[in-house]
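Two entries, shown back to back:
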Amino acid sequence: MSTVAIIDYGMGNLASVARAVDVCGGTPLITDRASEVTSASRIILPGVGAFADGMAELRKRGLDTVLAEEVREKGIPLLGICLGMQLLAASGTEGAPTKGLGFVDGEVLRLEAAEPGARIPHVGWNSVDQSRPCSLFDGIESGKDFYFVHSYHFLCAREHNVVARTPYCGGFVSCVQDNHVFGVQFHPEKSQKPGLRLLENFLSTEAAPC
């Protein structure tokens, strides 16, 4: 059974993510300790809040360093959820221009209403339209609804990192991937059966060769 380190940097929906991981057959470990992160076979970076605050909290705890070591040097699979996905970017603008973890090239910008009735923050169920095959979506049809709560979006620098988009505010990237690094803008732990299937798929992801 996979031990899944759920990173605690004071800004995550930790309990519900841990429950979902447990339901999916993983062993959740909520932690802010580098020594415990290094013992895990999978890592989830959840998060709710502003980009600048999130990076500040990660750096204060030294978690940015251990994530870089585990993900880049050891090839441990990582899933970023909501703010956690955004923190994978090279930079973000929420709060203040801030350097991100840099696991997926791109920047995080505020959503802009592009159609009448579009409200920001974007809250509720919306479709996730897959752009290309990805192991996270094995057994999940393109266009399935997932649950969102966010005001910013990930603008990828490279199209090959885009896995799925969602038709809101002119369309935004709702899933990214770079090898064994994944990010979803929605909350799989709040997205019922499709969300649990996605987490099960992540738990079966193999570590990248180093």
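entry 2 starts here
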Amino acid sequence: MKQDLNYSEFIERYLQGEMTPEELKWFEKEIEGNIRLNEEIDLRKKVDLVLSDKDLIDLKLQLKQIHLEINEVTEKGKGAIRKIYRRVYYTAGALALLVVGLSFYMYNRDFSNSKILQEYYLPATASANFRSSGVDNLELVKAMELYQEKEFEKAIALFEKILTKDSTKIGINLYSGISHMEIQEYSKANERFQRILNNQPNPFVESAKWYLGMCYIMTNNRDKAAEQFEILADNKGYYQNEAKRILRRIK
């Protein structure tokens, strides 16, 4: 797993377009698969959007003007002081509303991404129904053991070895995709789930859509996540009710 870094300075330079080509290449790689960083960037964009609003520009101009008037207050007497304090009161109130609005957005943003994963994401349990004496099946038993033990990189190596020899084992793509998700290789996970969806009909389609939706949540792609959960919500399957609840939170 990637270590948590203080990305604040990098985010600012990234959004301002001040990174060197080498820094940009590195930072875009950091962004991929880092849900916390994606959320922080999205929040900063929202804040910048709010800060660029005309009303807030006017608010900042008011504060600047108040500052100038206070410097001249000795020439205007107590009546001028009362007027300035009234303006400070109303200006501070507008600023407080802005802070409350941003706080509300931050709370709901966290709830919509990280909380969804905490409540609904769980790797599929490894199946124990492998009773063939074939070499491939022995490899599959070992791969599933590694998967269950959370040795995801080793499990992936065996899953891919089996699929290379026999691409008809569509279900293995599900476990391979989840393993890639667990080590934050989301583009590869996406490819494995798409293999299942591209080879319909098969009994793994519903699960592939569910985990593909979760994969999109992990990469902060709500629109594509919603597409998968809408399909699941419209069909009477295992994930229908949970898909409906998630849709209410991300749309």
